[in-house]
Amino acid sequence: MKAPINLLKKALKDGQSQFGCWINMASVISVEVAGRAGFDWVLIDAEHGPNGINEITSQLQVLEGLGPSAVVRVPVGETWIIKQVLDAGAQSILVPVVESVEQIRSLVAAVRYPPDGNRGVGSAISRAGRFGNLDEYLKSAGKQICLIVQLETWAGIEALDDMLGEDGIDGIFIGPSDLAADMGYLGELNAPAVQKTIAEALRRISASGKAAGILSVKDTETPTHMKNGARMIGIASDVLELNKALRNKAQTWCDRT
Hints:
Blueprint: H1 7-13, E1 18-23, H2 28-35, E2 41-45, H3 53-63, E3 69-73, H4 79-87, E4 92-95, H5 101-110, H6 137-140, E5 146-151, H7 154-158, H8 160-164, E6 171-174, H9 176-182, H10 192-207, E7 211-215, H11 222-227, E8 230-237, H12 238-253
Parallel strand pairs: 1-2, 1-8, 2-3, 3-4, 4-5, 5-6, 6-7, 7-8
Helix pairs in contact: 2-3
């Protein structure tokens, strides 16, 4: 048996818009609620969430069969953690703070088996290979890996055209908060210079044929990002949605006077 078809990778390649939810709570309950809500993809965040490899594995197990594609954002773009996340069963990976062609080439190598890369060959004892029950996993896995790199700095913006010429990545995802901060607008995502940079980057990514992505948790902003070419869009966060709902409820009923 071969590696499972990566529905997110296929949808992005076909030009379909894919909407997802960010999970930062490191909770199997949170990821199951999101997994049953109707999103196209659910992201397990190991950069800004207290997720180790055990927590990531448990959440991947919960998502399997629920419908949405699972995405894991690794804390750093290093081979050792990518190897662990892939063996845990992730097929779609988001890598933060990518700024150069050299980084992309290293990441592409990390998700491919030799001789095309340097991913460790351990499928017979990994969840990814169904613990040896996917007898064609080694030869089929690479075609189902969806590798998305995250552009979050001005250095990444300057290297964007070169990055778009690289094979092996499925898309580039804009991180608006970090990009704004790196441009000198900490906490000011709506600064005209930031919005102009984001819009131009999305258009350039989309025009290249690669999937353009962005985190857009304000419904009023999402249509603009889509008009500029965004197709992989994070529209919700478990922490933000829970906080908003609970604060609204508390403000409605809890008399603080």
